[in-house]
TrEMBL record:
It holds the Pfam family DUF465. InterPro entries: DUF465, DUF465_sf. This is GTP-binding protein. It comes from the Bacteria. It comes from Sphingobium indicum BiD32.
């Protein structure tokens, strides 16, 4: 597995201005970003074996990150 961080800038290139605008204006969106960063950090720690976890747990984290990423993408698509 890759241990490259999946930063929001990499996941949503060219949309950081929109992300920042939503973050400051929408507390729910700000929480999504915090959740994404927290899960992403957990995955990175697991991938680098700093805190080994089971494959099932790592897979669950990856699925959770994907769900959050989809929610972020949806919010961005609704922004005018």
């Amino acid at each position: 597995m890759s241990n490259t961080p999946h930063t929001l800038g990499e996941e949503f290139p060219g949309q950081m201005d929109k992300i920042h605008a939503l973050k400051v204006s929408d507390p729910r969106f700000a929480q999504l970003l915090a959740d994404y960063d927290a899960v992403n950090d957990e995955i990175h720690v697991a991938e680098t074996n700093l805190q080994p976890v089971s494959q099932d747990h790592e897979t669950g984290l990856r699925k959770r990150r994907l769900v959050i990423k989809d929610q972020i993408a949806e919010a961005l698509s609704l922004m005018a």
